[in-house]
Structure formats: C-alpha cells, structure tokens
Amino acid sequence: MIRVGVNGYGVIGRRVADAISLQPDMVLEGIVKVKADYKALVAVKKNYNLYAIDEKSLKSFFEAGLNPKGMLKDLLREVDVIVDASPEGIGAQNNRIYKEFDKKVIFEGGEEHELTGLSFVAQCNFDVAKGKKSLRVVSCNTTALCRVLDALDKAFKIKRARAVIARRAADPDEISKGPIDAVVLDPVNLPSHHGPDVQTVLPHIDIFTMALKVPTTHMHLHSLIISVREKVNEDDVIDVLKGTTRVILVNSKNGIKSTAHIMDFARELGRIRYDLYEVAVWADSIRVVEDEIYFYMGVHQEAIVIPENIDAIRALIGKYSKEESIKLTNKTLGIIQ
Amino acid sequence: MIRVGVNGYGVIGRRVADAISLQPDMVLEGIVKVKADYKALVAVKKNYNLYAIDEKSLKSFFEAGLNPKGMLKDLLREVDVIVDASPEGIGAQNNRIYKEFDKKVIFEGGEEHELTGLSFVAQCNFDVAKGKKSLRVVSCNTTALCRVLDALDKAFKIKRARAVIARRAADPDEISKGPIDAVVLDPVNLPSHHGPDVQTVLPHIDIFTMALKVPTTHMHLHSLIISVREKVNEDDVIDVLKGTTRVILVNSKNGIKSTAHIMDFARELGRIRYDLYEVAVWADSIRVVEDEIYFYMGVHQEAIVIPENIDAIRALIGKYSKEESIKLTNKTLGIIQ
Lengths: 337, 337
Fold this sequence. Notes:
2 copies of one chain form a homodimer.
Chain A: E1 2-7, H1 11-21, E2 26-33, H2 38-45, E3 50-52, H3 55-63, E4 70-71, H4 72-78, E5 81-84, H5 90-100, E6 104-107, E7 119-120, H6 122-129, E8 134-137, H7 140-156, E9 158-168, E10 184-185, H8 194-201, E11 207-214, E12 220-228, H9 234-242, E13 247-250, H10 259-269, E14 279-282, E15 287-289, E16 292-299, H11 306-317, H12 322-333
Parallel strand pairs in A: 1-2, 1-5, 2-3, 3-4, 5-6, 6-8, 7-8, 9-11, 13-14
Antiparallel strand pairs in A: 9-12, 10-11, 12-16, 14-16, 15-16
C-alpha cells in the first residue's frame, strides 16, 4: 500500500483525500489543516487522521474536540508521498521540510514549473514522471487544454492552437470575491499564463491564450480555435475526443447549453460534491472550416485535476504503467468512458 | 431641416431620439410608444411629441395625462425619415405602412439584412447608402467589429479575423433575464451570427465568431485574433486605431481593467445615461506575434449604434458627404477623437 498524506484541505486537498481513500493500493495517512472549521468536522466524521499546521491550529483542534494526531512533521514520518495542496506559493515554502524528511512530493498548479521542473498531466507524460522525487500537477485550465490538445495533436498534428478562457470568478464558497457585474481582463497583458503553462507539458504546441473573469462560480468555459496539418472533418474530431480519456462529449440536443447545465448533469450523476473530473466538450459546437477546428468546452475547476493527482502518486512510486494507473483511477472515481 | 420620427422608444429608440434632438440640421417630429411608463413620462418632460402605436396605447396615454399627438400614421405624415426601433422582427412587419406613406426608413440590427439589402456602418459604406430609400443599421457587436476590422484591413490587409464575444446577458433594466450563475453558449452551433453579419457590410473579410452569454449587464467583451498580410508591430496597430473614428484606446495603467471600469469612466465623462458611443480597445492588451494581432475591446451595447443612426439619416437624405456627417455627429454627441 502506498502511504499518502495531504497537506492542505481546501478546494483540491479535500478532493484528493477522498480520491486517495477510494484507491485499493493507497492509504490516506492523514490530512493537515489550519482551521477547525466545518471541513475539519466532516473530515473527522470520515475518520481521516487530522494533523495541525502549527501550534495555534493544534490548540484550536483540541479545543474543538477534534482529537488531532499531531503536526505536519508527525504526518511526514508516516507517508511515502505527500500531496501539497497548500495555497498558491506556500508549497514552495514547504519544500524545505519535505526535503528534510526525504519524501516524494506532489505540488499543485499554483506553484511554479521550476519548483520541480516536471509539470504533469497523466495522459501526456506519466512515463517521464515514473520514479521521480517530485512533480507539479498543472492547474485546471492547463490540464484540460493538455488533455484535448495532446489528443488532437497526435491525431491531426496541430499547427496552432488559440483559446479564449472565460474563467469562473470564484468557487461557490468564496463569498468575498468579485466581480458581480463585470468582465475582468485576466490579465490585460497578453498572453494569459495558460498558453506558456501548457508548453511546460507539451513544449512543441504553438499556443496563445486569452482569459477573462466572469461572474460565475461553476466551470471555466474555453472557446477553442485549433488549426491542424491533416485534413479533418467534424466526425474525425468527435472520434478522437471520444477515444480520449477524461474527456466527455455533451450535446445541446440533450439540454446542455451552458456551464450550469453541465454541473446539473454532474449532480444527476450523484458524484460527491457534484465533481466532474472530465473535460466536457460540446459535440454539436464542433465545426471545421478549412484547416481550423472550433469548439467549446467546460472545465470544472475544483475537480478536473483530481484524477491527475492520483496518477501522479503512482507515477512517483514508479511501479505502475500509465495504462494501469489511469484505468484504476478512472474506475475508482467513476469516470465516464 | 430633416424631419425625423422614431417608432419605438426602448433601448435604441430613446437614445436615437435624444441624439436627433442634438442635431442642428434635424428636428425630432415625435416618438411612437406602446406604454405610458416612466420612459413616456420623461419623454413628455423633454417636450417630445408622443404618438401611440395603437388605440389601446392611445387611450392609456390620455388616461395618464400624457397628451398624445396621435398614432403612428399621424407621425408618418410629418416626417422625411422614420427610424424603426421596434423589437426584433417587428420592423419587418411595419415596413408595409412605411411603404404606404412612401417614407425613407432606417431599421435596426434586429432585422434581417434582406429587409433592405443594405447593412450600414458609417465609416464603411456611407456613400453606398446615399439617397437610398431604406437601410439597416447593424447590431452593436457587428458595428464594433466593422469599425475596427475595416480600419485594420485598410491598413494591414486582413487575412483572417477570429473573435470570441462574451455578451452581457441583460441590459440594466431587464430584470427577468438570466443567467445568474452560468456561461451560456450563444448559440452552441458555430459560428455565431456576428461573423456573417459583419460580411453584410464587409463581404471580403474572412471572419469566424464564437459567442457566450455571461451574467453581466454592461458591455460586450470581444477577444480578437486577427491575422494580417502586412508586417506590423504593436505601435502600428495603436496608430491605426487612434486614427479611427469612434474607437478609443483605454489602458489598465489608468485603472481600466474590466467592463465595469469602462462604464464608470463613461459616467465620469458625464454622458447622458453614461453612454459610450465609441468602441473601447485596451491599448495595453494589443500584442503582435508573427502575423497575428491580439487584443480585447469593450462594446456598450446600448449606445454604440447611436452615431450610426444619425449618419444613416443623413446618408438617406443624400445631401451630405461621409466626412461632413461623421464630423457633425461626433461633435454633437461629444465623441472623443
């Protein structure tokens, strides 16, 4: 069994912890949290071992009757792999202590590529990561772009990829973030970071991205314009995406015309927290004109990187093939094929 | 003096009426309205002659003490040009009565191109419209795209233009429209109508557009990807846009980073209803990579077509040059050069 700890229990950490606990070859040794909030209460109800980030949080856990098992260092002694799901930039600060304990580490997309030199998307570079000491699972938008672009590039040879990303401005629990009634350029200066970030995984792809923040809480919405070298039609594109792991096709004929509809579909599926691990591409938006492929896709920002985190754990351990790991992760998470 | 009537007093009609009343060579003979609402009250306070669309509305105007001057037919007897600012599709129905009275007519972008066979943007085809019987002022997004693409095409020869339009979902007074928390594909099937609509004015431009509805009330936000034949850099693009009428450059260095900031800027300018007649291009978003120009621009959906309506009136009358008309319209509306 691979012994795993999760440092940080926010948007990503709590989902990774749940996913680990579903794996037949992994044991969740514990989670590290800062506050004794409702998320800590639910974690304890799930029998997750709770560790504190510092003395102050340890004290607050005792006061809340949460029976903490110790501090981050205590957890590190118990694990083979630690998943750092700390807020952006804090992972890099934590790296010193991980090195001190000589642990394998997974960082998230809020950290810089340079921290580990290895940016990871399972289908693209699982084998490169095998047996490595650490890696970075790229952010939600980058993960989605890599899945789709890697598949289309292998099938049709991408000449250039252009994407405009309408980002959800806040997650559903982020009550202090805006905007309420504006489109915010994110950032004004071009390109957005997503294009260069895709190139940390797929360095040969010519990509340029633009990004906006819009007043929604569910999903990022990508408008894609991809020029390819091979001659293709709409059905070719659909066939390739159908055969790509962690990509699903949705259709307005079934009533899915917005990000809200996709999330309501995920609620119907009965997933925990209505998480959609798959990129959702609108099949009936796919249009090919000459060498250009156009389509829309939705990305559930809270969930899409969860399967990549599970595969990343197996990649670092080094004893699994890419196909074995992806298959097992997909099965345990109920990912639609 | 050109005698003008305005049929319809919603988003566009009330703005066109105000703009007509500012012209030294025009007289607003009256407006046609359906309801005795607050907009009717304000119109009467402005001493606009109020006409009713039917017997029922005539009665309601009398009951509200609004002293209506008559019905649409009574207004038509008094005018040289009628501007039809009815809801989408109603203009086409009204065309029969305009023909009966043998009047020159301006329709708005909600009507089909085929209704008049002439889709109008002042800077692009004023001369084509000179002396014609009727024309259609294209919609807000199409107007904005035509202004910018016409200028860039004349300067650099456009190879292909691609645009993703994040549309405001509702105007500020439209309290029943959604979405609240979703990005809606508008429509799912590609392309959106904007590309073909641009080609009704600029048939030679290779354009493909995608469009989303987002939960905002101010401005449409365009992400543009334009490939050109001439070799250009960022400064060349800025110079061309600076020299283009009804296009202004904004900059995040001055604190303008979102559509809300542009609208607040328009409020500072003291414009009636904070109307921005100009397309606002973010100067510091302009980026050129090889043959592609990228930038963002904001379009005030309620206001941008107002100067085109005024120029369209003069074009139909046929006694003005394009330059004379645009100059006079810009001056009277306080458009920034």
